[in-house]
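Z., the sequence and structure:
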Amino acid sequence: MNKRNIYSKLVESLADTPVVFLRGARQTGKTTLVKQLCAEPAQSASPVLHQRQFISLDSATALAGALDDPTGFLRGLDKPVVIDEAQRARGLMLAIKEDVDSRRDAGRYLLTGSANILTLPGIADSLAGRMEVLTLYPLSQGEIAGTRDDFIDALFQQTFPCSGRTAELPKAALFAAMTLGGYPEVISRSSAKRRAAWFDSYITTLVERDIRDIANIQDRSALIRLLRLLGVRSGTLHNQAETARSAGLPNSTLARYLPLLEALFLVWFLPAWSSNMGKRLVKSPKVHICDSGLACHLCGADTERLGKNPILAGRLLESFVAGELQKQSSWTDHPVTLYHYRSQSGDEVDMVMEDRAGRICAVEVKMAASVGAHDIKGLAALRDSLDDQFIRGVVAYTGQEVIPLGDRIFAVPIRMMFGG
């Protein structure tokens, strides 16, 4: 069983918050994680670690009770309780609010959901101030290897701890990691053929079943077609009008479908960073598939094709690294918000991380074993425009050494970003 790096943050949240919502894509390990917590013996140092009732709304009987009489359903449960796949009965949320308001015990409810219930009308408002939200992503590269990967914390330290170190990740191993992704079930399968079969079944299950929990979609084949199109474009700027034309969908339909794919944790959008807060929402985001293995599957990209198509490989590598940083942001001790950067003069940086104090670290991704002056152009422009607000920039590359490239800019082996 892979140790999940978010576990300690989950325990901390349960210690002082009445409702904790652990969200994430289906098959990322949410149920396994909460069952692990439920099995922990009582400990005086961690009072939230004790036996708690576990009930899943994937059970037809439990779901019927939650839908028919939410208040009575909750009244019949022992507290504290885990309610798995809570998005299947949205009426529960108001009943949970009423129960929590009458008895505000920390850790009273631990909810999990394969769809983001915060996107449903009225849900976020009903539990505002009573619920903390954590996101469980597919396994990170560090979790797969059994290490804690926290490159974000290293970036923001006063002295860069990676300086002078070396790490190696052969290109063949990198391509294998990208095509494998982080879903535990995929990792457990030994053949590419069986992994492809899992991805096909996964997509069908989500669209045919889980989408019904949050929306009424008649043309589900169009949703799958859109997902495949976005897979090919993972790591690129999102153009709403052009995507609608390519998918053969009206703009109004695309505007409904994209949030659904986000709510199912299949797609995420990396917003543009700007020093002007008002401009961040109007600039084009980048689109990413949430798991690199799924992205490669949607593109039909195996390790051989990645080796022969450097443009596709570079784009999917950027999406892979962005996804790993997004995972690390869910547990790092240094909270950040992720963006990308594109200036009016054409300077670009793949990932920009801004902490709560407004300090900036940035990452540029290169599918190359060496780095030149032209590769740090965007990082240098961002650094010069921010002055002391810019803490550090790195070029993540396929070489082996950490190399200083100028003031606060380094070339860093990709392997080192994952706890290497």
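The two ends are 20 Å apart (CA to CA). The chain has two domains: 7-135, 141-418.

Let me know what you think.
H.
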